[in-house]
Design goal:
There is one protein chain. This protein is of the alpha+beta class and 997 residues long. Helices cover 56% and strands 12% of the residues. It is built from 31 helices and 23 strands. The strands form six sheets. The chain has an eight-stranded antiparallel sheet. It has a four-stranded antiparallel sheet with strand order 12-7-15-16. Strand 13 (384-392) and strand 14 (395-402) form a beta hairpin. Helix 19 runs antiparallel to helix 28 (873-904). It is elongated, with a radius of gyration of 34 Å.
Length: 997
């Protein structure tokens, strides 16, 4: 090998850079462990809410020492920025996909037009978007073109308005307007992206990730380590629509009369006998309203749809109060057309809004705001020039400054409120945050305050979103994943355990099988692991639990290159060559097979990276990095060590041990003669699988069907069937409950309100889960603790996933394209590499065979196995990895077949058997090593990886079988029947011999 000095220098520098990059991870982890120990020493387990108190103390400790120098070259804050990024499943946090409403942007660009053609096109686009992969803007254009008649996009009441007057004029055709609108929408999405980025920067998590997903209007946001999930969700989905309204007087007689009429009207609209009798219990609602007189209401003993849940009057500018759990129902009553008609003419446009209740409150106040025909506020938030979180009278508050226009409008509004003795409701995203009165006349200067029962974090978030600006359109969370920190730590522990066990097994096996040469391969393997982590850190890639599985799998697969090399060296030694020449020829002869095998695996990993998302993309990333570093360490580092050793005087290197020296020698199995039996056996297996797929189908996870899933842990064992029957009464049919790992842990999947977006629905479902499961929970556990899965025992929701139906269809389509794409790419690569379509056909047939058997097993045993066997993105990753592994094995066999036929001719298939026997040692060695590694992950890697690993274990077993008994026989049969088969390496195809049956 030439340029040994350059390779040594490169390997040394590569290793040092990797160690340097990883040093930040170790430094950051050490400081965080010190902070954790400090918090635990200060706050005992006996204190109430000790978990949250410790978290807060840890944060304060880390803030206080963040800039202190460490080892003279860094500090904690810098180390956190440069450490290895850990994904959600390892660190906890939240991952959401936001859908920016292109519909809202279009309506804004059209100045909220009432044009019927425009609005009909929007409605048609809404309907089409449920079953189409096209972008919303294209669906809108298509819908508009179908119904437009003589109407043009450049009509004065559509896009040729004042707002777009500089770009759209009346003379433009639709084809001229469309690119302008596309550009405007893209600009709005970019604006939304930047607004979200600014909000996230102010949120305070390290290593946040935010990225656009093509032109779909979707934005992916990942906040690893975020503890307050509700706060994070609110920050991301809030449009920051700040508005200032004048309220009606709470004792307005016309309003009170309206509520009485509404209550009576509702009796005729709603079957009061079906209304459940409210449970009378002492509550905050009773205590706060004990001084509010309603003597004029003679409604005792009656069933009152409105007044059973709503109380007129409140100690503020609100018109009434209700329990938070009833606000949605009361709001629906007040929006009914029959009820709105009861409003007096002077307040027919009144706007009813609920307050944003303080944390821990059981009630919410209802405000009546003075609105107009266009439902526009007196002042909108775009006049706010700055916002700060401060303390006013010792309490957290938000102070705002307005521009010149806003200051004038503010003075006018405060003057009206003072004259009318009304309040000014400050509304953010349709929630009244505060509604103060004006006691001293009009307020000039444009400075105002938002006060209330806020926490410090809440005022930080409000000021943050106001400074960042409002989103140009609503942002709906169409997919989310929430992982509790305790589950993340468990994933790290299980991942590390599987990693160490798998690595130890491989290291021991290599020494056991190849002796000193195996030790050299182990050194190269350890360097490979270091380089993988170093590259991951350098690229700021995210390490996920499937990513750890990818690294562990790389350990098993990286052995393959060394096995190929060592087996070829042994063959050269058996020919009588000297050590140096045998090593050189062994490395040279193995290179082609190594490259072919890794390229095919790499191609499937690239496809997985393109079509995958989240943790699956992390798996593909580590697999790709592992392939590159494995090639480098196997081809160059192992070679350097072997050459160094054999160059020494009196040193012997046999590439085997006394036990393994004679293994797989003189083997002469007639594989081709067994091919008809193999065909029948495989046809039966595939047939059973296809029958099961046609009759039973597969258990599809929420990734593919949409819905919500929750991983819940209890203190004691629970009966999933019993819980399922109870939850089906709450959520309706379709809710599935099954044991997930230990008997005290379950996975709940429900399609309940899957089409409804918004944090309110998430909170509603979590509340219903808490209420329904309360009897299985320890005494005293709060809803907040249950939802966050906090505490040392981690009781409650450890992980939640939500996938909307639209994105579920996209995931399913991407999975289908990924599998088809990988098959097509591999077919073309093998065709290009071997110049015979018969080789491609054999490889793709084997891969199809392997995939169908894995699918069939999952269909047959999906409800029997004691672990999760749902079909989700992780399963697709497993299928693609099986494809890669099967091809890896097949390509190595094909490479040897091509080589031997090139040397010795076709000879009716005899030399194909020779090629299969000569690679048997490598095939079994690699397969067994990889299988043991996968078993280690399956047993010790955690519940969430078991289905993933099971699919790969089946794939490795079936893939090894198919490369010998499916791929090669199919290639042989098709090539043998071809009249041009004799063109292979200038050899002739003889008639099939009697031995080959």
């Amino acid at each position: 090998m030439q340029n040994k000095g350059l390779i040594k220098l490169f390997a040394l520098l590569f290793g040092l850079v990797s160690i340097y990059q990883l040093s930040y991870t170790f430094i950051g982890g050490k400081v965080e462990n010190e902070a954790k120990a400090y918090a635990e020493s200060r706050i005992s387990d006996a204190e109430e809410n000790y978990v949250s108190k410790r978290d807060e103390l840890e944060t304060r400790y880390l803030d206080s020492i963040g800039d202190n120098s460490i080892l003279g070259f860094t500090n904690y804050n810098e180390a956190k920025k440069k450490e290895l990024n850990k994904g959600l499943d390892l660190k906890g946090g939240i991952n959401v996909t936001l859908q920016i409403s292109v519909k809202d942007i279009l309506k804004g660009l059209a100045n909220n037009t009432k044009n019927p053609i425009f609005n009909k096109a929007l409605a048609d686009a809404d309907a089409a978007s449920k079953d189409s992969d096209d972008t919303y803007i294209e669906l809108f254009f298509n819908a508009f073109d179908k119904i437009k008649g003589d109407t043009k996009l450049a009509s004065p009441d559509i896009f040729a308005n004042k707002g777009l007057s500089g770009e759209v004029n009346f003379q433009m055709s639709d084809d001229e307007v469309k690119p302008i609108i596309r550009t405007k929408i893209d600009e709005s999405i970019v604006s939304a992206f930047e607004v979200l980025r600014e909000r996230i920067d102010g949120f305070g998590v390290t290593q946040p990730n935010i990225q656009r997903e093509g032109n779909s209007g979707r934005i992916l946001v990942e906040l690893p380590g975020a503890r307050d999930i509700a706060r994070a969700q609110g920050l991301l989905s809030s449009t920051a629509q700040l508005e200032f309204w004048e309220t009606y007087q709470p004792n307005n007689p016309e309003l009170q009369g309206f509520f009485f009429q509404a209550n009576e009207k509702l009796k005729t609209l709603i079957d009061v006998d079906d209304i459940e009798e409210p449970v009378k219990q002492e509550s905050e609602l009773d205590s706060l309203l004990s001084d509010v007189s309603q003597d004029s209401l003679d409604i005792s003993g009656q069933r009152n749809p409105l007044f059973d849940k709503f109380q007129i009057g409140a100690p503020s500018y609100a018109v009434g109060v209700a329990a938070i759990q009833d606000t949605a129902e009361i709001g629906s009553y007040l929006r009914m057309k029959e009820i709105r008609r009861l409003l007096p003419a002077s307040m027919q446009f009144v706007k009813f809004l609920w307050e944003r209740p303080s944390e821990g409150s059981e009630i919410a106040e209802l405000y009546a705001l003075k609105s107009n025909r266009d439902n526009t506020p007196r002042i909108s938030g775009d006049v706010v020039s700055d916002a700060r979180d401060e303390f006013v009278n010792g309490k957290p508050a938000v102070t705002m400054s307005m521009n010149t226009k806003g200051a004038k409008e503010w003075e006018k509004l405060t003057g009206d409120a003072y004259t009318n003795r009304t309040g000014i409701a400050i509304v953010l995203d349709n929630k009244v945050y505060t509604a103060p009165g004006v006691s001293s006349g009009p307020i000039s200067g444009g400075r105002s305050e938002i006060t209330g029962t806020f926490t410090v974090n809440e005022t930080k978030d409000i000021s943050n979103v106001l400074r960042a600006g409002k989103l140009p359109a609503s942002a709906e969370i169409i997919q989310s994943e929430v992982v509790g920190p305790s589950l993340g730590q468990e994933a790290i522990d299980s991942g590390f355990m599987s990693f160490m066990i798998a690595m130890a097994i491989v290291l021991v096996w290599m020494v056991f099988y190849y002796g000193k040469a195996g030790a050299f391969a182990d050194i190269a393997l350890l360097l490979n692991i270091l380089l993988i982590f170093g590259v991951l850190t350098s690229l700021s890639a995210v390490l996920t639990l499937p990513g750890i599985a990818g690294i562990v799998l790389t350990i098993g697969m990286s052995v393959d290159a060394n096995v190929l090399i060592f087996e070829r060296i042994k063959e050269e030694l058996a020919k009588g060559k000297g050590k140096s020449l045998a090593v050189a020829d062994g490395f040279g002869n193995a290179l082609s097979s190594i490259l072919d095998a890794n390229i095919t695996t790499g191609l499937t990993a690239i496809i997985l990276f393109i079509f995958g998302s989240g943790p699956i993309k992390g798996f593909a990333t580590t697999l790709l990095i592992g392939i590159v570093t494995s090639l480098f360490t196997a081809i160059f580092i192992t070679r350097l060590l072997v050459d160094w050793y054999i160059d020494g005087k009196g040193r012997s290197l046999d590439f085997s041990t006394a036990i393994t020296k004679g293994l797989f020698k003189n083997i002469n199995i007639d594989f081709l003669s067994k091919r008809k039996i193999a065909y029948i056996f495989s046809a039966i297996l595939v047939g059973i699988g296809v029958f099961s797929l046609a009759t039973k189908g597969l258990q599809q996870g929420v990734d593919f069907i949409g819905g919500r899933s929750y991983q819940v842990r209890f203190e004691q064992s629970v009966n999933p069937s019993e819980i399922a029957s109870e939850l089906n009464e709450v959520f309706g049919s379709g809710t599935n409950v099954k044991t997930f790992g230990e008997s005290n842990q379950i996975k709940i999947t429900t399609p309940y309100k899957v089409d409804v977006e918004g944090i309110e629905v998430d909170n509603e479902i979590q509340n219903k889960l808490y209420t329904s499961l309360q009897k299985y929970l320890p005494d005293g556990i709060s809803e907040q603790s249950f939802v966050s899965g906090s505490g040392d025992k981690s009781i409650g929701i450890l992980q939640s996933v939500k996938v909307g139906p639209t994105i579920a269809d996209d995931i399913k389509n991407n999975a289908f394209l990924a599998i088809l794409g990988s098959l097509a790419v591999v077919f073309l690569y093998i065709l290009l590499r071997f110049q015979k379509w018969q080789f491609s056909l054999g490889a793709v047939t084997a891969v199809f065979h392997d995939v169908m058997i894995v699918l069939g097993i999952f269909s047959l045993f999906g409800t029997i196995m004691p672990f999760n066997m749902e079909i989700d993105q992780a399963f697709i990753a497993a299928i693609l990895t099986v494809i890669g592994y099967s091809l890896n094995d097949t390509v190595v066999v094909f490479d040897r077949i091509r080589e031997i036929i090139g040397e010795k001719g076709w000879r009716g298939g005899d030399n194909i058997n020779l090629a299969l026997n000569s690679t048997l040692s490598r095939t079994l060695n690699t397969s067994l090593t990889t299988l043991v590694v996968l078993l280690a992950i399956f047993i010790f890697g955690g519940e969430s990886l078991r289905g993933f690993m099971f699919a790969m274990i089946i794939g490795v077993i079936v893939g090894t079988y198919s490369s010998l008994f499916i791929a090669t026989p199919v290639m042989f049969d098709t090539l043998n029947k071809s009249s041009k088969a004799g063109g292979l390496e200038n050899s002739t195809v003889e008639p099939e011999t009697k031995e080959v049956k």
